[in-house]
Amino acid sequence: MAPGFNIQPYGIQSMLKEGHKHLSGLDEAVLKNIDACKQLSTITRTSLGPNGMNKMVINHLDKLFVTNDAATIVNELEVQHPAAKILVLAGKAQQEEIGDGANLTISFAGEILQGAEELIRMGLHPSEIISGYTKAINKTIEILDELVEKGSETMDVRDKEQVISRMRAAVASKQYGQEDTICSLVADACIQVCPKNPANFNVDNVRVAKLLGGGLHNSTVVRGMVLKSDTVGTIKRIEKAKVAVFAGGVDTSATETKGTVLIHTAEQLENYSKTEEAKVEELIKAVAESGAKVVVSGGSVGEMALHFCERYKLMVLKISSKFELRRFCRTTGAVAMLKLGQPNPDDLGYVDSVSVEEIGGVRVTIVKNEEGGNSVATVVLRGSTDSILDDLERAVDDGVNTYKAMCRDSRTVPGAAATEIELAKRVKEFSFKETGLDQYAIAKFAESFEMIPRTLSENAGLNAMEIISSLYAEHASGNTKVGIDLEEGVCKDVSTMGVWDLHVTKFFALKYAADAACTVLRVDQIIMAKPAGGPRREQPAAGMDDD
Amino acid sequence: MSLRVLNPNAEVLNKSAALHMNINAAKGLQDVLKTNLGPKGTIKMLVGGAGDIKLTKDGNTLLKEMQIQNPTAIMIARTAVAQDDISGDGTTSTVIFIGELMKQSERYIDEGMHPRVLVDGFEIAKKATLQFLEKFKTPVVMGDEPDKEILKMVARTTVRTKLYESLADKLTDIIVNAVLCIRKPEEAIDLFMVEIMHMRHKFDVDTRLVEGLVLDHGSRHPDMKRRAENCYILTCNVSLEYEKSEINAGFFYSNAEQREAMVAAERRSVDERVKKIIELKNKVCSGNDSNFVVINQKGIDPPSLDMLAREGIIALRRAKRRNMERLVLACGGEAVNSVDDLTPECLGWAGLVYEHVLGEEKYTFVENVKNPSSCTILIKGPNDHTIAQIKDAVRDGLRAVKNTIEDESVVLGAGAFEVAARQYLINEVKKTVQGVIQNLMSSNYVLFFNYHLHILMVMLINSKQRAQLGVEAFADALLVVLKTLAENSGLDTQDVIIALTGEHDRGNVVGLSQNTGEPIDPQMEGIFDNYSVKRQIINSGPVIASQLLLVDEVIRAGRNMRKPT
């Protein structure tokens, strides 16, 4: 007799399929969940801020990541625990929405969950904690609006100084010490491609080309594109030329229906290749006559077509990625034609120069367009190893995303933990005014903000308690802009250091963190299905609980 | 046992073992779902086989995702799913009501009562309760202009049980407006005309109602406009791409000239069709600054897209079948299946068409339409589980509003109906049952005692007098909703029940306030439930409970596919 039929255990376990796990109640579900989230945030926390440590993550494909970018870390960690996963999702949402501040989201969510655990142990019900945290986050957002630096709501997104001042903090948290070099590269690139209406800024227009070798100081910004391929033909350099782009490939045309060449005699065979040749020549000639000097193909380039291109001194480039081709069109202002034929003069694009260069042993084609239609810029990054390059790229991405965010909302708040301490102070004051049990939750929420200055100073090897108390002292005396100077280990007015964070980044990070934490707290039962089958990995994935 | 003789491999449970298995399963399921009920219910986290997360408070979703195996539990779960199919809400209530009926019966059965008698009592009580529901319900007049306030209250009551309060209140407006938007007088409401679209973006409170349509794909040509105002919209189902002929055809050519000609000929028929569309565009758009949008259900190939793009036409290909229907309702015009007889009358109109790109995904918004009779609820949320949660809630909310419009009545919520029905059963029916007992001694007084409950009496006379215990069990089981509501809010169950029944005996119809535990007037608080939901619960609950109680043997024969351990 099969078990489960005649033996009738009472409760849910009897009703589920084999292999299901069911966790419920405060101890089993809520506290376990909080614990898992805490573990996750302990991992990310040490990477917070400019002095954050790097993590070495090897993912399931054996790819090595050396980074302090929280989004990458949690992404490659493949978190299994469902509650910790909610935090990861919050971090991802932040990364997608703003492109920066994922670490703040996860670490802060972990911190307030830790606060929640203490409250639960004190005897508070999770629903009271949720209501307290909801009140606290609403208050926080109100205060955050008040903390916005005056005059920062208007900015000229084309002014390099202003852009860098807002971007520095974000980039510095990824590449401390090199932020000035990177910021200036990113700012240059972003300003170049910024459209008339800055709100339409497209992150895709700033490209990154990673080339092994050299160092960061060799990095440059190219107005235009850098293609990691050689030209097809022998012409390697051309200047001030018109460009014709063919999406369909440069070759003889073909029908959709299968065609068969009908040949009766040997003569016809000979003639056929001749007509074929003549046809291709006619097409290429037409292209050459339109004034184009460069032919870009989105598909294959036929041998015969190439031959005639050479003869008519046309440079041939092959870009097989559809998106890359589109970007190329944007760079040059060309319109992609589907079929090979004589292009309209309007459809031709223009480049200042196309040249093949060898950088660090790789042949790259640099397409420059200094004047009109400069809608794509490329940051050429140089570095000694792949992981360094990857990490630099992430820093650049963060910078570009910050630029995008500031194009939409340029308001800034003081950085270097000044905002957090101020929030901690004011939310705490707010908690005294509340009468219900949720005041404890609000107070806990306020205390959680201390995590940021604490972590920043801990990561920098400073005495956290000392710093926090002196920060509080400064803020209590009305100096709301005092933050930590990590280099000297003292508290300073951030306006002298020029550390500013974007308001939107903070806003979304805190909101996502609070939402995620409340979601984790709301869950009181977990029903887990048996993990789906599939090939077992050699090493069992370490769950969060094994740490 | 005789079955053993027939099939030595069969498993069998009989008499009380079978009964207790059923009762235990019902109680177990009740235990699982109990914590979900009401606005203060907690959330369950379901982790799928692939590690995907789902958060839910919705009984239906939970039952569906839980992969229940126990046969009795499956039966109950099916009733709940039927409840959802019919009324869209009340799944949790159904399950806990069935569980409670079983629990109440267990007491009597343990005392030696025969299940059949209880079942008879259930039947009587069910009929009486349904009659009582007819009297108790609050009629709502649904004229041409339905009372928006009452619809909002019903929607709010439903949605608040699925989501937290501030989000629920926001969704309420969206849901009511959506249903009113698609409602046509004299026609049944087709909820499919509300498109539910989701975007992983921003926060859950950014969910909004789009009067128009949101399509989850964008134009496929880089040179097409991303944003256009004053648009004529051509909804069509015309293939604008070269299609291979059915027969196996091939071209024969003997020189490149001929081949070129064939390439051109191949395209000609498609080009002709595109040109017809362009012609129409020039007809309606020349001389004004309107734009032209083509939304095609079939494909549009790159050369055609190119031609359209050059004319400044925005073209979308491979729209969903259901969206074609909705587009016509939203923008007007008609869907055309051929380009041969295009007239400006076929065109719809929208004030604004724009594309929104989110990472890899593209969305096309068709907004600012005139007199829409289709609309889109655009759900936003930072992650998939939030979106799924909102989606379930929206679905239930829409159903609740639709039910209200169709029922033309609502029932007071917050446990008010359950308490009222229970008091009615205990006070009124008990009296009559006592009457029956007296009548058995002197049957002359029967009709005299029961003048106001004539129909019920007839049934009662026919039933055995012990059936009153079944009625009592049923009446007590009704209270489970209230008990659970109180329990989930952290209130004292007994206090609440005494307070509420007391008020009802005094003639006040009151419900339970989740925050204070005090009796409140649901009408003042705007807590209303659907009439059809309540009716369905009362109808289906006892039926399934009766069936389960009358089971006296559970047999599993046939080969067990899984290896016995």
TrEMBL record, chain B:
Annotated Pfam families: Cpn60_TCP1
Alphabetized InterPro entries for the sequence: Chap_CCT_zeta (IPR012722), Chaperone_TCP-1 (IPR017998), Chaperonin_TCP-1_CS (IPR002194), Cpn60/GroEL/TCP-1 (IPR002423), GroEL-like_apical_dom_sf (IPR027409), GROEL-like_equatorial_sf (IPR027413), TCP-1-like_intermed_sf (IPR027410)
UniProt cross-references to Gene3D superfamilies, sorted A to Z: GroEL, GroEL-like equatorial domain, TCP-1-like chaperonin intermediate domain
Gene Ontology terms: cellular component: cytoplasm
Predominant cellular place of this UniProt entry's protein: cytoplasm
Subcellular localization, as worded in the UniProt entry: Cytoplasm
SUPFAM superfamilies found in the cross-reference section: GroEL apical domain-like (SSF52029), GroEL equatorial domain-like (SSF48592), GroEL-intermediate domain like (SSF54849)
Sorted UniProt keywords: ATP-binding, Chaperone, Cytoplasm, Nucleotide-binding
GO molecular function: ATP binding; ATP hydrolysis activity; ATP-dependent protein folding chaperone; unfolded protein binding
Alphabetical list of PANTHER family matching this protein: CHAPERONIN
NCBIfam families for this protein: chap_CCT_zeta (TIGR02347)
Family listed: Belongs to the TCP-1 chaperonin family.
Protein name: T-complex protein 1 subunit zeta
Species the sequence originates in: Arachis hypogaea
Lineage: Eukaryota, Viridiplantae, Streptophyta, Embryophyta, Tracheophyta
